[in-house]
Amino acid sequence: MRVNEAWLGFKIIYVIDPKLSDPEQETVDRAFITEAIEKNGLVYHGGGRTHVQGFANAEYPASATEPQRQAVTEWLAGNPGVVEFEVGPLQVETEDG
């Protein structure tokens, strides 16, 4: 039997400063995952080189929360290697299990 499950997450788009060297860009990207995502109990599905986009949600089977979304927003706003970003509202992501 298939069961539909839904949980909340949010869309993230950010641009890493293209003036940074490749190692510096990689450092920003790694820091995003460890400091903004994993530190806040989230997982991230997405990627890109300097224009990164994806979706964050809490580790299954939980929903992301507004404080988690705000923490990611604050990290992006405070990182000088990020020149532009957008964090979407909490929204439902569905997966058939």
* Unreliable runs: none
What structural category arises from helix and sheet content? alpha+beta
Mean pLDDT across all residues, rounded? 90
The ordered string of helix (H) and strand (E) elements is EHEEHEE
Number of helices: 2
End-to-end separation: 9 Å
* Helical content (DSSP H or I, runs of 4+): 25-40%
Number of strands: 5
Q: Specify the biggest β-sheet.
A: 5 strands, antiparallel
Describe this structure as you would to a colleague.
The protein has helices at about 20-35, 65-80, and strands at about 5-15, 40-45, 50-60, 80-85, 90-95. Strands 1, 2, 3, 4 and 5 form a 5-stranded antiparallel sheet that branches. Helix 1 runs antiparallel to helix 2 (about 65-80). Helices cover about 30% and strands about 40% of the residues. The protein has about 100 residues and is α+β, with helices and mostly antiparallel strands.
Attribute tags:
97 residues, alpha+beta, five-stranded antiparallel sheet, 2 helices, 5 strands, elongated
Could you give a short description of this structure?
With 97 residues, the chain is of the alpha+beta class.
Write the topology of this structure.
Elements: E1 4-16, H1 22-37, E2 42-47, E3 51-58, H2 66-78, E4 82-87, E5 91-96
Antiparallel strand pairs: 1-3, 1-4, 1-5, 2-3
Helix pairs in contact: 1-2
